[in-house]
């Protein structure tokens, strides 16, 4: 009697073929030298890591920052970023305000970025001459003997950051390739809403309504030339600068850049450590944010101060990294773009921001 299957022969052949295909696939995809039995028949899908939920900023801190900024007479921008948690509190954080000497940070970072790539060292020798002198604060000028001073890249960098020496900064700026080199660094690192101006000579001359001349670097020649201008010309130049500063930057962008610096995202760990320790030894702005830093905390910063005209100041700033004893860190930028308030009142505003961060640390 003939065998009668319950399934058609074509179905049996199809099942055999499918089994063979599965076996062939398993053999084809296994690692050479590893037995096939190590590979299960089922397909294992990779599970992407979950995205951490964003941490909310302390509400009390946000209220405090908004209150102190809104009650101040002038254009004010404040940004506080928690480097550990990632939250940001701000008031006018995306408004571009004059940086003034805060922009020395970007020159310093450009120098250290070139150092990281092996294109310069901090021991590179540099000769300062009378032709390098610029405007306003330049204590290095007293060191020129017989019209020269032998120094190094590292010393110029420390003087530019800790003393806010304009001549040291402008000499470093020329050494690294001029404003275009700094702007390239800012763009390559994706620092966002940060401009870099033409250097102290051209920036300060234009703000005053003047065109730079070499003799302005000596004595009080710049002040005399500025005083000879009609008041209307000085006010017009001042207003142009405040309205659209060529060195303008948003407080939030600066705070973000400082946070990335602290996390070694902009420079090598060695250069980052050098820059932050240099900022911590700054001798300027002792009654700005630093005046409210508690004992046991560390603070590295860079100040910036613009020209005065008719009781107004175009740029009065302090930006830096505030570190708690337990290691928590905050990047802070307080920028006053234009204000008639007194210097003690400006300092009080800056100190109140630090006090709010300390009182609401998270």
From TrEMBL:
Q: Which reaction does it catalyse?
A: a beta-lactam + H2O = a substituted beta-amino acid
Name the source's superkingdom: Bacteria
Any one Gene Ontology MF annotation carried by this entry is:
beta-lactamase activity
Q: What is its EC number?
A: 3.5.2.6
* GO terms of biological process kind: beta-lactam antibiotic catabolic process; response to antibiotic
Which PROSITE patterns does this entry report, sorted A to Z? PROKAR_LIPOPROTEIN
Task: Please name the InterPro entries in this protein's record.
Answer: Beta-lactam/transpept-like (IPR012338), Beta-lactam_cat (IPR045155), Beta-lactam_class-A (IPR000871)
Protein's UniProt keywords contain Hydrolase = yes
Keywords linked to the UniProt accession? Hydrolase
- Any Pfam family hit: Beta-lactamase2
All copies of domain Beta-lactamase class A catalytic, residue ranges: 77-335
Top-level EC class: hydrolase
Give the record's family classification. Answer: Belongs to the class-A beta-lactamase family.
Q: What is this protein called?
A: beta-lactamase
Q: Which organism is it from?
A: Sphingomonas panacis
């Amino acid at each position: 009697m003939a065998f009668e299957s319950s399934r058609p022969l074509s179905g049996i052949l199809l099942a055999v073929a499918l089994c063979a295909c599965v076996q062939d696939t398993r053999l084809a995809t296994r690692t050479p030298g590893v037995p096939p039995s190590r590979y299960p028949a089922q397909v294992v899908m990779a599970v992407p890591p979950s995205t951490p939920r964003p941490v909310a900023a302390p509400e009390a801190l946000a209220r405090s920052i908004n209150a102190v900024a809104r009650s101040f007479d002038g254009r004010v921008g404040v940004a506080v970023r928690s480097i550990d948690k990632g939250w940001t509190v701000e008031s006018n954080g995306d408004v571009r305000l004059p940086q003034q000497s805060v922009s020395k940070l970007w020159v310093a970072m450009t120098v250290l970025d070139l150092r990281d790539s092996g294109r310069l060292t901090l021991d590179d020798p540099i000769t300062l001459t009378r032709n390098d002198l610029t405007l306003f604060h330049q204590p290095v000028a007293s060191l020129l003997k017989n019209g020269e001073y032998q120094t190094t890249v590292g010393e110029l960098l420390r003087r530019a950051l800790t003393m806010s020496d304009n001549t040291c900064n402008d000499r470093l700026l020329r050494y690294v390739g001029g404003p275009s080199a700094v702007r390239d660094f800012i763009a390559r690192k994706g620092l966002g809403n940060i401009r870099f101006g033409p250097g102290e000579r051209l920036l300060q001359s234009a703000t005053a309504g003047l065109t730079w001349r070499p003799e302005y670097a000596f004595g009080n020649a710049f002040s005399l030339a500025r005083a000879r201008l009609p008041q209307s010309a000085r006010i017009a130049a001042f207003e142009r600068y405040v309205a659209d500063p060529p060195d303008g930057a948003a407080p939030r962008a600066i705070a973000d850049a400082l946070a990335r610096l602290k996390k070694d995202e902009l420079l090598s760990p060695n250069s980052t450590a050098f820059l932050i320790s240099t900022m911590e030894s700054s001798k300027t702005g002792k009654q700005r944010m630093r005046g409210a830093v508690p004992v046991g905390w560390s603070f590295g910063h860079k100040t910036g101060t613009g020209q005065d005209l008719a009781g107004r100041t175009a740029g009065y700033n302090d930006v830096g990294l505030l570190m708690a004893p337990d290691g928590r860190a905050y990047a802070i930028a307080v920028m006053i773009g234009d204000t008639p308030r007194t210097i003690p009142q400006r300092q009080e505003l800056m100190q109140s921001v630090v006090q709010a961060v300390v009182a609401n640390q998270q």
